[in-house]
Write a structure and sequence with these properties.
The structure holds 2 protein chains of 2 kinds. Chain A is α+β, with helices and mostly antiparallel strands. Chain A contains 2 helices and 4 strands, in the order αββββα. The chains are: A alpha+beta, B mainly alpha.
Chain lengths: 140, 102
């Protein structure tokens, strides 16, 4: 694909896809913010992280973006004293996920901004195409 | 419409007609290109439309992401608009020649 406008749309499209993947991970973390283990003393849900990398696309001679890895956050779990919980250990402590909702909200906001930026690129590329084609249309 | 034009294009061997064809940006500017040939090539660009349709259907089936669907449909729209603009231009060039006072 030599058409640079088409290439721009494809690259921005890869950005949309990765930001969607990021949104998915954030959704998972938020939904599982209170998921404890099922057996006494077992580990709760572990926060997931997402990393990105660039990927060379020979067809457009440019770099797309893709999800490199969905990894696990190794931060320590929160511990709460709740002897009535089924996941409590012998001393009555329950391990809760290492999720900070504030961090997830910040991540969500960043994904949103990045998605909008990529959408803007696509809109701009579209208007480039339209205005250039109008040149052909109205000159008669 | 296209067969009739191609017939007319092959009958009209005038230099003006052959010069109009490379201006349309056809991929392989042959020595003898008629209006009909060029219009047929524009029709070949419609492959992108089929692509967009296929992706849209697989998107409805949940096999493609909404971004992929939008991207391919937009690609199809872009090539359709380009093809239509080029076709209109060619037809108006053809009409200019055919309505030329003799």
């Amino acid at each position: 694909m030599i058409d640079p406008i088409g290439a721009a749309i494809k690259i921005a499209g890869s950005g949309l896809e990765t930001q969607s993947a990021r949104l998915r991970v954030v959704a998972e973390n938020m939904a599982n913010a209170h998921s404890t283990g099922t057996t006494p003393g077992s580990d709760p849900y572990q926060r997931k992280t997402v990393t990105f990398e660039s990927q060379l696309d020979p067809a457009i001679e440019g770099n797309l973006v893709r999800v490199k890895k969905i990894g696990l956050d190794r931060a320590p779990f929160r511990v709460e004293h709740d002897p009535g919980n089924p996941a409590a250990d012998s001393k009555g402590f329950v391990k809760l996920p290492n999720i900070d909702l504030l961090t997830e909200m910040a991540d969500l906001r960043e994904a949103n901004r990045s998605y909008e930026a990529n959408l803007q690129v696509i809109k701009q590329a579209n208007s480039f195409t339209t205005s250039t084609l109008d040149l052909l249309r109205n000159s008669s | 419409m296209i067969p009739a034009l191609s017939l007319a294009g092959s009958l009209l061997g005038s230099p003006d007609v052959t010069q109009a064809a490379p201006a349309a940006g056809s991929s392989s500017p042959a020595a003898e290109t008629s209006f009909g040939d060029v219009l047929a090539k524009v029709g070949e660009a419609m492959e992108t439309l089929k692509n967009g349709e296929t992706t849209a259907i697989s998107g409805l089936q949940g096999q493609a992401s909404i971004q992929q669907v939008v991207e391919s449909v937009m690609n199809a729209e872009r090539s359709l608009q380009t093809a239509v603009a080029i076709r209109d231009k060619l037809v108006s060039a053809y009409q200019t020649i055919s309505q030329m006072p003799i």
